[in-house]
Amino acid sequence: MGSKAVPLWGRFLGQAIERVEDAALLTGRGRFGDDLPVRTDTLHAAFLRSPHAHAELGAIEVSGALAMKGVEAVVTGDYAKAHTKPFIAGVKQPMEHYCIAVDRVRYVGEPVAIVVAQDRYVAEDALEKIHVTYQPLSAVVDPEKSITPEAPVLHEAVGSNLVSDRTFVYGAPDEAFLNSDQQIGVTVRYPRNSCTPIECFVVVAEYDPAMGGYDVLANFQGPFTLHSVMALALGVPANRLRLRTPPDSGGSFGVKQAVFPYVVAMALASRLVCRPVKWVEDRLEHLLAANAATGRVTRIEAAVNNEGEVTAFDIDQLEDCGAYLRAPEPASLYRMHGNLTGAYKLRHVRVRNRVALTNTVPSGLNRGFGGPQLYFAIERLMDRIAARLHIDPIELRRRNLVLAEQFPYRCPTGALLDSGDYRRSVDLAVTDGKWQELLCRRNQARAEGRLYGIGCAAVVESSMSNMGYITTVLNAEERARAGPKNGALTIVTVALDPLGSVSVTIDSLPQGQGHRTAISQVMAEVFGIFPEEVTVESGFDSAVAGWSIAAGSYSSRFGPAVAGTAYLAATRLRDRLARLASQHLNVDMEELEFADGKICARDNPANSVPFRRIAGSSHWSPGTLPEGLEPVVRETATWTPPELTSPDSSDRINGAAAYGFIFDFCGIEIDKATHRVRIDHYVTMHDAGRTINPALLDGQIRGAFAHGIGAALLEKFRYDEDGQFLSGTFADYLVPTACEVPDPIILHTESPSPFTPLGTKGAGEGQSMSTPVCIANAVADALGVDDIELPLTPDRVAALMGDDEPPFRATEGK
Amino acid sequence: MPRLNAGQRHTIQFELNGKSVSGETEPRLLLSDFLRGVLGSTGSHVGCEHGVCGACTVRVNGCAVRSCLTLAIQINGEKVETVEGLAGNDTLSPLQRAFRRHHALQCGFCTPGILMSLSELLDTGTDVNEKNIREFLSGHLCRCTGYGNIVRAALEVFAENRSGRAVSDD
């Protein structure tokens, strides 16, 4: 007995058990934000939103709306300016972003006023009675244009739309380029898209004048750095912003991070009316104004020798963050900064990072968060190098992969890649995924005159973010002034009740990933009980739970952080229970076994006591505990990996605790008549460290795969030249259906992480990073073209083929 | 149907999952809002309010319909079934069990609508294969699962139906 270096594994951990969440969700008993009861005096809000992409905001005439029966109040920018502060941002610039527009609107859909009424229908009626005077300004929606001197400036005090411009040098890239045989580069543009959870935002806010604080329910997903952002905007101490989340959340994929300005907006509205105010976002609002991933224009060049060995990258990234730099941006640009070299062992990097603002929806977390953009550039480049040097694309990648004996491997830009055997993963994928057969399939298709292509992609998936990585955007001096930012605390509490059952509170705010199931498995393994006996609370309450700025589900933190910390808490509790059981059974602690709901002597199973009896005993008889043993009723574990240090003086940053590896390849066929891209064969190899539940892991892979297909073939937020939004319904913004998502062949290897308590790594996002570029590479191969821009809609494929196709219209079908 | 005044409330009565229910509604109130907001039957979810995502799908007189495109007043006197009615006496239906077995849901927000559509298809006795079940499911958007496990769960239940035996739950 006692804590072991290697976690127990096998009885429940590693098993594809059914989910404890499902019985309720399948019977309509989910508890989503809009399902929960509210106080009977609750009012309902609707937003008036800007029809202009860029305009000076004049008078707002609200008397007509206020005169309507059932309308209680209208909130405008003046009230917001008087009672809230602008949101703080990661870059120091004179930009002001309030929860609703003040003086100027900068994107179509920006909130201009809030009507608060007895019900939503009346609130929406009243929107039509508000008259706003706008003085339209010219708009810019393209980041390359927005940083030119002619472009209209969004934030006049900044004087430019370029809000951050930093250049970093690691190693000696100039020398590497000078000594290289070839310099090969690509320029790519990554579009703005969004993961669009099927449940939109929900907020219910209540102002407490006695406390001078707010109690808010929102389907927020973290990170809780944003709690500070919200509290500062409301001008209250953090303990006067009680934030609760519903037990169930209808997907997020990062997106619900962006509910935070609406938390402040509803708090403000509730302050005005002194009653609870509820708002449920509709789909138009969500597509128009919630959150999109950043767009990115990347020029990447490699220094290469004739054997295909890459020695240096020179990267120029121009990031489109939309109309406001909304926290935690520009994190999208810096999340992967520590491993800008992807899966490859080159040692020299120069990178210029610029952040541009445009008259489009502000950017924010979206599955992959910076990864899809970066890997699209790197993996398009690797294909270009392979083609130029006439080396097989997989062989080229193999020659450059970080080697197994190099782990843990420090990347030139600072990431500490924890574990892996990338070459073995690739080789296994080639064999088990039938790469040779795919080549034959392509040859045969081409012999028949069909358009068939093959692509591949190698990706390192970072998980559990270092909360300090965003400060890499600041220089060393600015960082010193701001104070160190690093680490990523996780807090989990395991409690035992008087009848000896186990309850767990976690800080991950799940949105469908099955966290309750996975935690139940951890508990069952450690305590020798059954998963269904464990209760895991998924609803969150900042007034009750233990939490830090790192709380939430983002950057695939659950596997490495939350499950690992739950394991730490459980094993500590078990070791203390073992002292009680040892006394009870008169057996040495080391001889005890926890299994089948009992604690017994390993060599004499008949000498046993029910787990629940020992587990509940401290409640009943704390007076007779063994000498020096605290009552065994609960354990809170707080963990942060020591590897997550602040950016160093040379701007090296280890952005994540664990790094998984993914290698994908696929075969696609293009229909010559319809220009549709059909995925014929898709193989993905994952190394996500130890696996808690293979079915949950595959679920994450399949879901991210579907998002990757959407990004590759369908999804883009379209704006016209004037900044009008053209993707406001699910009939205009097409997302993959069951017909567009084939079954991928999923393969696994397991290299346990030495840095996480369970050896687990995160795996929620990698497939969103690899799939878009893998498909793009295959389409490039099919068509024999170099420049590929996503999404590869039929009109774009037709253009690549030189076929005439009418220009895109918003109503175009697939 | 009598003429309805926009501002007036009208009493409607219908059968919801086998029980008679009634309530007051303005003519413009959506069925989805009536079920959720008036009756507190929150199992049917609203995902887009323009009939594309399918999360709000319920059955009216056996037919799957989008409750976000249906007015509450339209179902006066009809028979409505929602996800709350699928399971009997604490036992999941074969379809629900198959979804759980195959991890065919994650966040569970789109799931009620998918279950209602599939339950209609099951009742029609239509013969399905993977291709047409995928086409059938394309009326529903799911952002979590990538659909594969939903397809597998559905195919298994249709196979059970054909062979007349249920796959054991454990």
Brief characterization of the structure:
The complex is a heterodimer of chains A (814) and B (170). With 814 residues, chain A is an alpha+beta fold.
* Sheet with most strands: strand arrangement of chain B: 2-1-5-3-4
Helical fraction of chain B equals 25-40%
> Could you name the CATH class of the largest domain in chain B?
Alpha Beta
Tell me the distance between the termini of chain A: 60 Å
Total beta-strand segments of chain A: 29
Itemize the secondary structure elements and their pairings.
The complex is a heterodimer of chains A (814) and B (170).
Chain A: H1 22-26, E1 43-49, E2 55-61, H2 63-66, E3 71-76, H3 77-83, E4 104-105, E5 111-117, H4 120-127, E6 131-136, H5 143-146, E7 162-170, H6 173-178, E8 182-190, E9 202-208, E10 213-218, H7 225-234, E11 241-245, H8 260-273, E12 277-280, H9 283-289, E13 295-304, E14 310-320, H10 331-334, E15 348-356, H11 371-389, H12 393-400, E16 409-410, E17 416-417, H13 422-432, H14 435-447, E18 451-465, H15 476-482, E19 490-496, E20 502-505, H16 515-527, E21 535-537, E22 540-541, H17 558-585, E23 592-595, E24 598-601, E25 604-610, H18 611-620, E26 634-639, E27 656-670, E28 677-687, H19 694-714, E29 745-749, H20 766-783, H21 794-800
Parallel strand pairs in A: 1-12, 10-11, 14-15, 20-21, 28-29
Antiparallel strand pairs in A: 1-5, 2-4, 2-6, 3-5, 7-15, 8-13, 9-10, 9-12, 11-22, 13-14, 16-17, 18-27, 19-20, 19-26, 23-24, 24-25, 27-28
Chain B: E1 10-16, E2 19-25, H1 31-38, E3 57-60, E4 63-66, E5 79-81, H2 94-101, H3 111-124, H4 130-137, H5 148-163
Parallel strand pairs in B: 1-5
Antiparallel strand pairs in B: 1-2, 3-4, 3-5
